Amino acid sequence: MKIHVLSLFPDMFSGVFGASILKKAQEKGAVELAVTDIRDYSENKHKQVDDYPYGGGAGMVLKPEPMFNAVEAITEGRKPRVILMCPQGERFTQKKAEELAKEEDLVFLCGHYEGYDERIRQYLVTDEISIGDFVLTGGELPAMTVIDAVVRLLPGVLGQEDSHIQDSFSTGLLEHPHYTRPADFRGMKVPDILLSGNHAKIDAWREEQSFVRTLERRPDLFDALELTDKQLKLLEKIKSEM
Fold it and tell me: Is 238 flagged in the annotation as binding?
């Protein structure tokens, strides 16, 4: 996969792209990450990328020319998904991450100031994504978030191929609790079932704990799930106990 980011502050990405899973993914050849300064594609000798909005109002608006020039230059005729990080966009979910992980080429647009010229949205962008109902200074941090969520799903990136399958939201539910050594830490003990060696019982315990945690913290997630008869009985059992 190739991922290209257009930003006014490309230096923000060096630490994130050069560490942890994203660094390993590049070393394994699973992804190519590149960041370009939008100012490099300004048609103004002063590298201006913003201007006052027509009709008046506070703030500055990103001009269309640099964005169009940059995307056309880096895509070289290809037609990748062009993703605008925007608080008005579609709420980002694990399902969206899985959808984007199937692509071979992604371009992320990050901006600052008051907003974008509307023609960028209408004629250049294929997807608008928001990571939540709040406003940040720019699109860089949201882009990092989405890229991390996508890249870790690529084949060969994680140490264990099924690691991401058990993550919270991958199954539609929150993940079960995890424990490691020591079995007894200051009197706080690991549940006996996890020390039993009975994998069938352990799997059943983990599923039940996943249901419990989801009911306690995000009961709304059940609204989008199609549960089996067995899972429905488990859910009713847990509800009655709670």
Answer: no
Q: Which residues are catalytic?
A: 87, 114, 152, 167
Ranges of beta strands (E only) in the chain are 2-7, 32-37, 50-51, 61-62, 81-91, 105-109, 115-116, 127-130, 184-185, 188-189
Q: What range defines the domain where residue 202 resides?
A: 168-241
- Residue 157, domain member (yes or no): no
Question: Does the pTM exceed 0.85?
Answer: yes
Binding residue per annotation — 134? yes
Instruction: Specify the residue for token string 């991450």.
Output: 97
How many domains, the chain? Answer: 2
Report pLDDT for 57. Answer: 85
Has 133 been labeled as part of a binding site? Answer: yes
Mean pLDDT by 10 residues, the chain (242 residues): 97 97 97 97 92 89 96 95 95 96 98 87 97 93 98 90 56 91 96 96 96 95 93 96 92
At residue 28, the 3 state secondary structure works out as coil
The answer to the question of residue 223 being in a domain is yes
What's 195's domain CATH number? Answer: 1.10.1270.20
pLDDT at res. 160: 62
* Backbone torsions φ then ψ of 165, nearest 5 degrees: -65, -30
Q: Of 150, 202, 159, 160, which Cα lies nearest the Cα of 177? A: 202
**47 assigned to some structural domain:** yes
Whether 56 has a binding-site annotation, put simply, is no
201, part of any domain: yes
pLDDT at 112: 80
